[in-house]
Amino acid sequence: MYPMLKPALRRAWRGRGTVQFGVTPAHAVKLGPMDIATSSFLELLDGTRGLPLLREEARALDLSDHQVDVLIRRLTDAGLLDDVRSVGPEADALRNRPGALERHRPDLASLSIVHPDPGGGMRRLAARRAMRVQVRGAGRVGAAIAAVLSGSGVGRVEVLDGGHTEPWDVSPAGLPSAAVGERRDTAARQLVRRSAAGSAPRAAETAGSPESGEPGLSLIVMAPRDGFGAYVPDPRSAEQWITSGTPHLYAGVVEATGVVGPLVLPGGTACAGCLALSRADADEEWPRMLSQWRSGRRNAVQACDLGLATAVAGLAAAHALSFLDGDLPASTGTRWETALPLLDWRSERMTAHLDCPCGAAGHTVRERASGAGTAHDTMAG
């Protein structure tokens, strides 16, 4: 181990004998008591020295080997130490792509804060390269989500959509104006390629089926150009995802309302079928209106404020990345919703329905995801 104090956490003295690492309450840590010798030793933790050399240089500061070991253990337990030489084939492959690693340094710094174990940030960033995510929709929301996921190191980002790019699909965070008139799926593939830090991984670098050489889907993001499909998801379109056990996340803008979630864990959280049944229970007129909304032909351009669409795309991508990194974001079994002009994000917990064949009723998110992380009660970020 070559320990290094996590550089992403700002350091400041709170007073004599106590140092605070980090600014915000979510990740700040106080450490004490701290004397001059111990403070000087902290300056040696820059990732260039192994433990034997650290012990040797600490003796010049009148620190014993035992004191060094205790301090290293305390810093590790507090999540303040990183290991810049953490090993593993995926991490080694990322290090061998220096251009990509430079692009990802801000992401790596963030992951090092969120995941306290030494080398945890590097391992998770490297693991993204072997993942495969499918984004359904290449409008202002879907294209931006795909670009962020690709730029964040996800190795395989597929975008499914039909038709040709229209002027109103263009977004600074998504499809460029030059894509107008091109097939949407083609333009989205080019966007994903441009956003990535380096080339896509070779089939040999990923774990897929022997027939395809492709990794299995880690996540599907449903972000239709018409956000109605995200606000009122069609249970029929999700049946195959429930059957295959594929996690999926809904995101979109309908009228002047932005929606992120729910993230559906098949068999563990409420699905589109649960939502449909619960709505029908709460409002007996809902099925009648829903039938009219779905059957009516709409030729008008959908309302989709650019700022709101970009905010929804960013939040959805962040939730997707949190899930891919092994945590359960606040959208798990929950929908986050905000509306113009006040943009006050609110959450609604989705309840699994007893009559839904998905089987989620009677199971909790905690039971489903034991060992994979803990769901947050409030939205982070």
Q: Main attributes?
A:
7-stranded mixed sheet, Outer Surface Protein A, domain 3, single chain, 15 helices, disordered C terminus, alpha/beta, Rossmann fold, 37% helix, 3-stranded antiparallel sheet
What does this protein structure show overall?
- By secondary structure, this protein is an alpha/beta fold.
- The chain folds into three domains: 3-83, Alpha-Beta Complex (Outer Surface Protein A, domain 3); 89-126, no CATH class; 129-368, 3-Layer(aba) Sandwich (Rossmann fold).
- The protein is 37% helix and 15% strand.
- The protein has 15 helices and twelve strands.
- The protein has helices spanning 36-42, 51-59, 65-77, 89-95, 98-103, 105-114, 120-128, 142-151, 184-195, 228-231, 235-244, 272-282, 286-295, 306-324, 365-368, and strands spanning 3-5, 11-15, 18-21, 29-31, 81-83, 132-136, 156-160, 217-222, 248-254, 257-264, 334-339, 346-349.
- It has a seven-stranded mixed β-sheet. Strands 2-3-4 form a three-stranded antiparallel β-sheet, with no helix packed on it.
